[in-house]
Design brief:
Distance between the termini: 39 Å
Number of helices: 2
Radius of gyration: 14 Å
Oligomer: single chain
Helix content: 10-25%
Number of strands: 0
Shape: globular
């Protein structure tokens, strides 16, 4: 398994970003914010608030930078974000404008 940290949105390497990732960290390729739920190891769409950490505050937009103290980046975030509801919504938006 590859443990390289990559952008949750485009899959580009985040090796150039200093760790720990700060709240303002952005992907150098697509400029997506990286201190987001979608990159966190606690992110789980099957859980309440889409988070395995029950003590974490509820974050409404899982793709925007937040101040969550429980944030821990996970290497598999890009592969996990491909497909699913996000792609389905994008296809519907493209179809219906």
């Amino acid at each position: 398994m590859n443990n390289e940290l990559v952008c949750w949105k485009c899959g580009a390497s985040l090796a150039e970003l200093p760790l720990p990732l700060g709240r303002r960290a952005e992907c150098l390729t697509c400029h997506a914010e990286q201190h987001v739920c979608r990159l966190c190891r606690h992110y789980d769409t099957a859980k309440a608030k889409q988070c395995r950490e029950t003590a974490a505050d509820d974050v409404k937009d899982k793709t925007r930078a937040n101040f969550c103290d429980w944030f821990q980046p996970r290497p598999g975030a890009y592969a996990a974000s491909k497909g699913g509801a996000g792609d389905a919504k994008a296809k519907l938006d493209a179809l219906f404008g």
